[in-house]
Amino acid sequence: MRMENQSSVSEFLLLGLPIRPEQQGGFFCLFLGMYLTTVLGNLLIILLIRLDSRLHTPMYFFLSHLALTDVTFSSVTVPNMLMDMLTNHKTIPYVECISQLYFYMLFACVDCFLLAVMAYDRYVAICHPLHYATIMREELCVSLVAGSWLCSCAHALLHTLLLVHLSFCADNTIPHYFCALTTLLNLSCSDTSLNYLVLFTEAGVIFLLSVSTILGSYILIGATIFRVPSIKRICKALSTCGSHLSVVFLYYGTLAIVYFFSSSNNSKIEDIIASIMYTVVTPMLNPFIYSLRNRDMKSALGILRRKGITFFK
């Protein structure tokens, strides 16, 4: 039987979060507060790095791009989820759904690469401190960030182009709060074997490369520290690397649950919870974990606050 093309479905129905109607007001306020914290916190990080010349180093250069990515990544899904809660209008046009999927995959992939790049930066700083300025020169930093964006664009474009060739027939209900790739593949009435093959190979390679870069960097950092152990060096390394590793495990762990360990059936509540963790919670926590607990960032924030008080006097 010949399948109809994708024009037979002009919109999708997003079921959203599995919460009761009487609880929507409370959850709306909760997620709105978390989203505003994400946006304001990460924009503050970018502002501080731009204004304070002491923060014009490779580590903070990568951090500013991570903060920008976290704002855009969260903005792809959260505003639409909040609007659905507020208006109870849960439909999303086909084109808007595909666009949301593209940008979601783009920023998620950039996050993966930037976390790996930041781990490599910490490896060079701790294991090769005398050659840090020579190795992490401006050209290399710009190339690493540009390469992360270009590879992520190619990754998102590949899966988006493969998806638009699929047919969507009768069922247009998405049991999620945004257009997730695996959920859309489950809805398609076309053969999705190629899509899943590319997903588990190409995305798997990106996942393994990023994780192996992070783990390899920290294994070498640990070997360097314990070669000549001292309490001061261990404490400094833990303060620098512990927070980064905790976010890495949170982010990559939830990604693995959604894309590698989720069932082929409709999304379960575990998938939705995992998605909330890396689209809402992790971007909100990053300003606190990476920056606001950092001595240099605290100093820059104090200077900015004093300048603001002086300006308004």
Write out key terms for the chains shown.
three-stranded mixed sheet; disordered N terminus; 3% strand; mainly alpha; 3 strands; 10 helices; single chain; 75% helix; globular; 313 residues
Short description:
With 313 residues, the protein is mainly α.
Characterization of the model:
- With 313 residues, this protein is an all-alpha fold.
- The protein contains ten helices and three strands; from the N terminus they run βααβαααβααααα.
- A three-stranded mixed beta sheet has the order 2-1-3.
- Helix 1 (24-51) runs antiparallel to helix 2 and helix 2 runs antiparallel to helix 3 (94-127).
- The longest helix has 35 residues, at 193-227.
- The relative contact order is 0.14.
Question: What's the arrangement of secondary structure elements?
Answer:
Layout: E1 11-14, H1 24-51, H2 58-87, E2 91-93, H3 94-127, H4 132-135, H5 138-164, E3 173-174, H6 181-187, H7 193-227, H8 231-259, H9 269-292, H10 295-312
Parallel strand pairs: 1-3
Antiparallel strand pairs: 1-2
